[in-house]
Amino acid sequence: MDASSPLTFxxxxxxVGFIAGMGxxxxxxxxxxxxxxxxxxxxxxxxxxxxxxxxxxxxxxGIYERLSNIRDEANQLELQLKEDAxxxxxxxTAIQPSLDFSSLKSPQEQQTKxxxxxxxxxxxxxxxxxxxxxxxFGLKGNxxxxxxxxxx
Length: 152
Prior knowledge:
By secondary structure, this protein is mainly α. It is built from 5 helices and no strands.
């Protein structure tokens, strides 16, 4: 085959056209542009998420520091209170009285004391006996007592 033969030019132009077509498809294809824009959006969203994680982490660190400061201040106040109580010769029970739970009863003791009867329906429910949720609550007897305004 001769280098200047038309068949050689056709094969070379076919290869160059194929490469140029692939390049143009890659550059000008709508699906390729959409995929590139989606990748860009994904990277932006990941960057935003990373920034949010950093801000939340710093926020939580600030809260933890404030909480530890509050605990330290409470401990200092308690220590100062105890020192002042010792200086004035006051017992700790006067400062922090012990809680007396003897008057409180457990639910089991209350149930045995009251018996195993079922509780009555609260008056708020519309049981037909004039509870606040009944349909005629507040309507009986008030119609005659309330005078109608004059009509002009």
